[in-house]
Known about the structure:
Blueprint: E1 15-25, H1 28-37, E2 42-47, E3 56-61, E4 64-70, E5 90-98, H2 101-110, E6 115-124, E7 127-135, E8 142-147, E9 160-161, E10 177-183, H3 189-200, E11 203-205, E12 217-219, E13 226-232, E14 241-247, H4 255-260, E15 267-274, H5 278-287, H6 297-301, H7 303-311, H8 316-322, E16 325-328, E17 340-348, E18 356-363, H9 370-397
Parallel strand pairs: 1-4, 5-8, 10-14, 15-18
Antiparallel strand pairs: 1-5, 2-3, 2-9, 3-4, 6-7, 7-8, 10-15, 11-13, 12-13, 13-14, 16-17, 17-18
Amino acid sequence: MLQVTFPFCTMTSPLVRLSHITLQVSNPQRIITDLVNKYRFRPFAARGLDGVAPCQVALRHGQVVFIVNETPEKSSLLYDAAVPLPSPDTACNISYEVEDLPGLCRHLVSNGCRLLVPPTQLHSDAGSVSYSVVKSILGNVRHTLIDRSRYTGTILPGFQPLHKEEDNPSPADVTRIDHVTYACPRGATPRIIEWYSRCFGFQHFPLREGEDPNRGFEISGPQIGLRLTSVECSGREEVGKIVMAESLPQQGLNQIDQFLQHHREGGIQHVGLLTPNIFRSAEALTDSGVLFAGQPPSYYTDPQKKEEILCAGLAPQHLARFGILLDTSTELQEDEERRILLQVFAEPLFSKDSFYLELIERRGAQGFGEGNIRALWRSMQDMIDDLSQKVQEGAVTQ
């Protein structure tokens, strides 16, 4: 097995913050409608609405920005490079803001990286923006690197602002992207970690104490054979963590295997959205029509879990209403407040085996609780299996 090293471990990452995530889809209107009506995103900029260029629409919720790209016939996108056709609807680009684009591009090229778009500069009345697009080591994932240091505008050059009457913050109240999870082919994680360490200065973030980055955190059980490994840019929480997920050999397919049937070389499986109040967010999104992955009643009635929930000052029935999972720190130092992690997965955004969103609230917790990880992945697998059954039943009735 390839051993992971961290050549950038003593250096500051060249990444400043996560700018946006791009979705490339065949029917942008449907995805935009779901993001607006269900997830409370607000369109704020666009290009190509006249049909001359491929449609690109930017939507915002708090500091979270998605750009929805129409699948183009030619590679004529701004701030991106099209995924080769044919391609399923996909989340395919994590864009980062950087400060020294030319220097970073030289570093990437010297490390054998392929620039899909060389450093390019665009101008407007608000100044200039430079960007480049690099292909990652994983599947169809690419990274747009943007230097906005000489730009004072809020809308990137080439996009036109969209005026909406409602400028108030959404009641769903998400703030920023907490983490991005990749579905990876078996055995690929060490190479992916090494690439992100060498190119962007990511470092191993253990999911449990003493974790070996070459082995990660393994979870075994019925349809839940997973290996998870996480990396971060130390001191730069606005960059967000990256979590790599692989399936372990087992009987039957789990959600990683199902995702890889459509993204054979791996890709972005889900994005965790940070919220200051997961109960308010889940209620608002449920009222808008979002379906969350539920938990079996036994999760909330288990005496140990019930006591854990009550000690956190919460009510089991309140969590059960939305399928929210709770994990707390088990070892506390004297006078240390209990660290709490709350999470829930939403339904797939494109199709049953595709990209989806997660709500996550951190009350002092910085990692990912082992109990939450197990329950989250089981709940999502149950939801995918249920959706598959409904699709099959619908096909039979038709």
